[in-house]
Amino acid sequence: MYRKIHMFDVTVGGRTYRESDIEQPGEEIVMSRTADGVPLGLSICYDLRFPELYRILAVLGARVIAIPSAFTLATTREHWETLVRARAIENQTFVIAANQFGPHPRISTREAAR
Fold this sequence. Notes:
Blueprint: E1 9-12, E2 15-18, E3 31-33, E4 39-42, H1 51-59, E5 64-66, H2 73-91, E6 94-96, H3 109-112
Parallel strand pairs: 4-5, 5-6
Antiparallel strand pairs: 1-2, 3-4
């Protein structure tokens, strides 16, 4: 099991997010394997902004890195694709990166429309 290492504690577009108020960060860098035995590195969302994590996963042998995410709309537009590509290129790995679509379950529809 992987627990997100880097908490999303930032202000974006005038809105403050304090993930550390409701979550505890993980401490382990986690490797797994696909059903076919391919080494798989695990990460989540905001971890994407910390290239050192992906370098370590590559050094540990990751050939594929998974990055499920719930990037905010503002940061998705400006950063998501660029950062995903950078992590893949820097480490010569395949990256599976799925970002959410629509409102986040923890955010009301009215807040998501802002």
